[in-house]
Design goal:
101 residues; mainly alpha; 79% helix; elongated
């Protein structure tokens, strides 16, 4: 019986780690998009486009939550809020998975 419990705890720990890594990667994509925007990275560049596309897909529909006149401020606010939400949700889910184990 203890072997099953140990295996379940290891599985839950592994799941928590995987979820944490996924959440952090999403937050990094959003933050890198913000940084590249603030630094006036060339939007035609492949790397910049990669982060812009993924950030748009992961922004939780918040891409136009705030509509200030300055596009840099708009990206910072909208994608920043999405990054904060992703970080908070990731933290909560990882803690719950670890607590369950």
């Amino acid at each position: 019986m203890s072997t099953v419990g140990t295996t379940a705890r290891r599985g839950a720990g592994l799941l928590a780690t995987v979820l944490n890594v996924i959440g952090i990667v999403i937050v990094l994509i959003l933050v890198l998009h913000i940084v590249l925007t603030l630094l006036d990275a060339n939007p035609a560049n492949g790397l910049t486009g990669f982060f812009a596309e993924w950030a748009a897909a992961l922004n939780l529909g918040l891409g136009n939550l705030f509509t200030p006149a300055n596009p840099k401020i708009s990206v910072t606010m909208n994608y920043g809020v999405a990054a904060i939400i992703w970080l908070a949700v990731t933290t909560i889910v990882v803690r719950l998975v670890r607590r369950i184990s």
